[in-house]
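Exercise 7.
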Amino acid sequence: MTDSELRLRPTSSSRIKEILTPTTSDSEEEEAEIHRSELLSRTRITILDLLRVLGGLFLLSCALSYFITNDSIFWGHRPSFTRPAWLKARIRGPILLTEAELSKYDGTDPTLPIYLALNSSIYDVSASPHFYGPGGSYHFFAGRDATRAFVTGCFEEDLNGDLRGVEEMFVPLELEEQPQTRNKPEGGARTARGRWKVDREKAYRKGREKVKEMVEQWRQTFDGGKEGKYFWVGTVRREEGWEGPKKLLCEKAAMSRPKTKAEVV
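Solution. The predicted structure, written as tokens, is:
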């Protein structure tokens, strides 16, 4: 075949397309893929990005809070974990004190914290020395378990932790004596005595529940509470029979007893 015949031979369509289509090298394709990956990584929001934003907002809120309140980074609220005494107590662990040992923590020794106990649980109230320290309005609560006084309101004779019989202050006086059945037939008398016994047991049960509720309300006050300035630190160690003879209701509690069942709330 001559040179002239080769020059005149028609070129196939696939060959023409190959010639006309620009080709790219492998390195160019890799570079384009890297570029696309970089664009995707720049527009993708990761968990770390969210944490950075939230952390920044938190720090900004804390700074504004301290600038405005001049006291707290939590807008007037001071959680327990922000207090050195709370952290120290958590590191040290729970304490176990006898009543004699607890009495040393009444605020008279400035090197010791101020403790009080409620239902055998010990709480640190050092954050309020103006209340529980010497000269404070509630200094008589410091260094002891005065749960009975918290319920009865008798702050002189009831500064102890013995709750036996306190429920009586919520039991109507009319249930302390059996109903008069002298002029009733035997069946009616038996029914009246049975009803009185049931009502009396019910009243005492409700009285114990009321005492429990009142103690729980005080526990919430000292175990963190709204401001978190008081906190639990340990337990009072007691010997068996520590209560001694059962105590009578103080005069204030006895006078507050309801007279009839209708007066019970």
